[in-house]
Design brief:
The complex is a heterodimer of chains A (144) and B (105). The two termini of chain A are 24 Å apart. Chain A is 23% helix and 43% strand. The relative contact order of chain A is 0.22. With 144 residues, chain A is of the alpha/beta class. Chain A contains three helices and nine strands. The longest helix of chain A is centred in the N-terminal third of the chain and has 14 residues, at 6-19. Chain A has helices at 6-19, 61-74, 94-98; strands at 2-5, 25-33, 36-45, 57-59, 77-86, 105-112, 115-124, 131-134, 136-139. In chain A, strands 8-7-6-5-2-3-1-9 form an eight-stranded mixed beta sheet. Chain B is α+β, with helices and mostly antiparallel strands and 105 residues long. Chain B is built from two helices and seven strands. In chain B, strands 2-1-5-3-4 form a five-stranded mixed beta sheet, covered by helices on one side. Classes of the chains: A alpha/beta (144), B alpha+beta (105). Chains A and B meet through strand 4, helix 2, strand 5, helix 3 and strand 8 of A and strand 6 and strand 7 of B.
Chain lengths: 144, 105
C-alpha cells in the first residue's frame, strides 16, 4: 500500500502536465511502516536523457545521490520514484521492467493529450519478470 | 585488500539487510564477484544474463566512477570504499512494447 496526500498527488500530476509531451521524473520521500508506505514529500528531478525524452527518462547517479541526501536531511526514506507516460497508460512498459530496481515504489502517471490522468504505483517482482501493482491511496491529510 | 562495499537501499534485503559489506579483493570485479558469491540473490539485480554489469548499476571506488578508471579491473587498496549507486531509468517505450505488469494478489 502506498499512501500519499491529494496535494502530493496533485504536485506529481502538475509536474507531468508541465513536462508534457516529454516524460517527467522525481523522487518519493517518506516512511515505511507495518501498514505500508507513506509518501511525505516529492522531489521533482531533471530528466537527464538528452534524446527520446518523449518516451524515456533517466535520473542519473548524481540525481539519485541528491535525492538520498535530501531524504537523509529530512529524516525520511527514499521510497521510490515517479515518472509520466505521455499519451500512454499508467502501466509499466517492458523498458520500465528491464531497468527497475527491487524494493522501490514506482509511481506512473498517464498524461493524455496534455491532461494528467491515472496515477498508479508498482513494485518489481522478485524474479524481475514483471511488476506487481501496489495499491495507492490518495487522501486529504486528516486535520484535528 | 580489505575493502568496504556500500549497499544501496533497494539491494539491502538481498544482502542480509546490511548497509555495507567488508571483504578482501584485489579488483572491483573480484569484490563484486565475492559479494554475489556471499549473497546470491544480488546477482540478478547487478548483472545481466550476459554476465556484464547492468547499465543502470553505477560503481564508484571512493569518489571515482569505474567507467573512467579500469572498469571492473580497477585495482583496489586497503581501506577503499566501493559504492553501488543506482541510475533510475524507464519510460513508456514504443507502442509495441509488451506491458510488463500484473495485478497485486
Amino acid at each position: 500500500m502506498l499512501r500519499l496526500s491529494a496535494e502530493l498527488a496533485a504536485r506529481i500530476r502538475e509536474h507531468a502536465r508541465q513536462a508534457y509531451p516529454e516524460e517527467c521524473c522525481g523522487a518519493l520521500l517518506g516512511q515505511e511502516g507495518p501498514d505500508g508506505r507513506q509518501v511525505v514529500a516529492v522531489l521533482p528531478l531533471e530528466n537527464t536523457r538528452t534524446d527520446a525524452r518523449r518516451n524515456r527518462f533517466l535520473v542519473d547517479a548524481a540525481g539519485v545521490l541528491a535525492a538520498e541526501r535530501e531524504a537523509a536531511r529530512r529524516g525520511l526514506t527514499l521510497l521510490g520514484w515517479y515518472h509520466s507516460h505521455p499519451d500512454a497508460p499508467a502501466r509499466p512498459s517492458a523498458y520500465d521492467c528491464e531497468h527497475a530496481w527491487p524494493w522501490y515504489s514506482y509511481v506512473i502517471v498517464s498524461v493524455q493529450q496534455g491532461q494528467p490522468a491515472a496515477l498508479t504505483s508498482w513494485r518489481l517482482q522478485e524474479d524481475r519478470a514483471a511488476f506487481v501493482s501496489e495499491p495507492v491511496t490518495e487522501a486529504a491529510v486528516a486535520v484535528g | 585488500m580489505a575493502v568496504r562495499i556500500l549497499i544501496p537501499t533497494p539491494l539491502r534485503p538481498y544482502a542480509g539487510r546490511n548497509e555495507a559489506v567488508e571483504l578482501e579483493a584485489a579488483t572491483v570485479g573480484e569484490a563484486l564477484a565475492r559479494l554475489v558469491e556471499q549473497f546470491g540473490e544480488l546477482r540478478r539485480h547487478l548483472y545481466a544474463d550476459s554476465g556484464r554489469l547492468r547499465s543502470f548499476v553505477n560503481v564508484y571506488v571512493n569518489d571515482e566512477d569505474i567507467r573512467y578508471l579500469k572498469q571492473e579491473q580497477t585495482p583496489l587498496r586497503d581501506g577503499d570504499v566501493i559504492s553501488i549507486v543506482p541510475s533510475i531509468a524507464g519510460g513508456r517505450g514504443a507502442c509495441h512494447d509488451r506491458i510488463a505488469c500484473r495485478a497485486s494478489d
